[in-house]
Predict the 3D structure of the following.
Amino acid sequence: MRAQFVLSEIGVGLRRNLTMTFAVIVSVALSLALFGGSLLMSDQVNTMKGYWYDKVNVSVFLCNKSDAESDPNCAKGAVTEDQKKEIRTDLDKMTVVDEVTYESQDQAYKHYKEQFGDSPLAASLTPDQMQESYRIKLKDPEKYEVVATAFDGRDGVQSVQDQKGILDNLFGLLNGMNWAARAVMALMLVVALMLIVNTVRVSAFSRRRETGIMRLVGASGFYIQAPFIMEAAVAGLIGGTVACGFLVIARYFIIDHGLALSEKLNLINFIGWDAVLTKLPLILATSLLMPALAAFFALRKYLKV
């Protein structure tokens, strides 16, 4: 097969169906950009989970005098020194516990003032209204129920709270957004495949005379198909390259510069460039193979020798 002939046919086909070729490029670029974005979103959620789940605490809040008057869990009164020692001893014995930190009422009041000092409620609070607590870091954040079962409803314990529950709601929202992006991506891929199939068929129909002559002179099916398949592959590859450009530009301007979220949101551990760069070969390979396969199957009934 002469490479010059194939390349010339590719150029002719792309120019002859310029509008549809442009539509293919745009649809492939958008669908693969969403595909890459969904993969990066999954990496981001997993990175955040690994970062934050390692830092979440289980808090055992102890009853104070105010709770004894208003909270049914503290009906037996404020926590005693013996109860605090017993709770601490039992916590230290638990194999799921990695570290235990005690927070006094004065420390809780200080932390509250630091975080909510501008709140109107802060001016009316006093240290004796705050709760003592044990802040527990678990070896496995999934083992929260072990601590909750052991201390929830115990004398002197007002409540057991797991910060992981708050993070689960956040990650659930992010995962929902990610699945929505994947649904849009799947729709865009279907649209791109339909455009590729139609473009190839229109191209084959417009050159039916040439392909008919090639059949008569004994050209093989693959020889006839090659220009059409490569047209689709080239258009898809251009779209894939554009999609890669979108991802690189988005990572650069959203995280590093422009919005600069990495500087404004220091509490979030963002994915690095390595996560982006490892997705680019997959996107390029998909952009090349997907249109080529779609063109191959679309041409089968047109090019039977």
Observations:
- The chain is about 70% helix and 10% strand.
- Residues 164-206 form the longest helix (43 residues).
